[in-house]
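dumping the sequnces here before i forget
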Amino acid sequence: MNKVETSFLHKNQFGDDFLWGVSTAAFQIEGAHDTDGKGPSIWDVFTSQKGKIKNGHHASTACDFYNSYQNDIDLIRELNIPNFRFSISWPRIMPAGVPPINQAGIAYYNKIIDALLLAGIEPWITLYHWDLPHNLELKGGWTNRESVNWFSAYVEICVQNFGDRVKNWMVINEPSVFTGAGYFLGIHAPGKKGITNYLKAMHHVTLATAAGAKIIRNRIPDAHIGTTFSCTHIEPATQSPKDIEAAKRVDTLLNRTFIEPILGLGYPQADLPVLKKLNAYIVEDDLNNLSFDFDFIGLQCYTREVVKSSLLIPYIGAELISAEKRNVISTDMGWEVYPPALYEVLKKFNAYNSIKKIIITENGAAFPDTLKNGKVYDIKRTHYIQDHLEQILKAKKDGLHVDGYFVWTLTDNFEWAEGYNARFGLIHVDFDTQQRTIKHSGLWFKDFLS
Ligand code: NOJ
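..and the predicted 3d for all of it:
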């Protein structure tokens, strides 16, 4: 075997049961935006609007995973990666978001699942990775309380059709990001803004998370059920009481608001008073219906944030000081490279006693890779992954629980508002030819997993 990098890391240090995988999402890779009866999602519509995505990029073809899935599954096997996380596109299964069902969509995901199993790769399904059917957005999307029922009906269809072969399920991906960026800031689909839209979406998404998980539990008794949260280590810019308080509010918003109701702790209204406005949308039994006893929690951590108090920022009274302003090493996303953040979030989430198992369901980095003589020498990404794995080992040594690590992501793909500029893949994609080239980081990961 060709050793591509010397590193003191060894897979065995993580234990035999540690789960290794790679994560993707339907809209970012599939393309085939209107093929075989698929309906438009909010992201198809958003990307078609002028000025929303860098360089006017869209995902009509993306990585063409819809057609090249077998090739990409072969690559996952070549990289020795035993677990593959992918999402189901709701409008491919139900073009209008509600019945009728598109049988071609069901057939497509059946092909993927069967191809993975045949290759000896375990499928991990995310039910919602941000591509809401556009037709439902016309009815208010996640701001409409009916969204809980729409989502439940969609989950039923997925578990009925795929539950015989798929045991690992994640209900919703990064709720704080898609509600914050999509319903408060308007920089992600569906492009809505304002506190009312945001809080309604927050509450309905959280209800839908618990409702969806219950459906999986009832239909697939031996399912391994999780849901994923983005999380960031937050630090105050100075030790002044104002900055410390500001950091606490940002931590509450980014790290606690979505998980605490799921854990039965309710919304953290005491530490973030604007959340009290949620009470206008909470009815009768809601507080009981917000929680679910998940088998695992997926954490997705990329960086840390440094926070200072600011009276100019409404609701939160805090400002993030960018990596650029702090003059620290950062990725193409402008995110600081700070591996200890992973240790810190593991410590933070380990403190919730009711979390049974933590899996890092995303971690990775975007760097400006170049293909030279058929090779991509992405040493920064290789080191980024290695350094984060070191933090996991440190956490394990300190007695913290962590049960798996999934790299974001398999191939370079459509990075939402950043378009194709931010390359996160272990595998390089030439988007003109769809040519794949395994990067140095991919080769290192392959060796590591062998
Ligand atoms: C979080 C999201 O789940 C994923 O879709 C995104 O591409 C990565 N992080 C990187 O930003």
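DSSP finds 16 helices and 13 strands in the chain.
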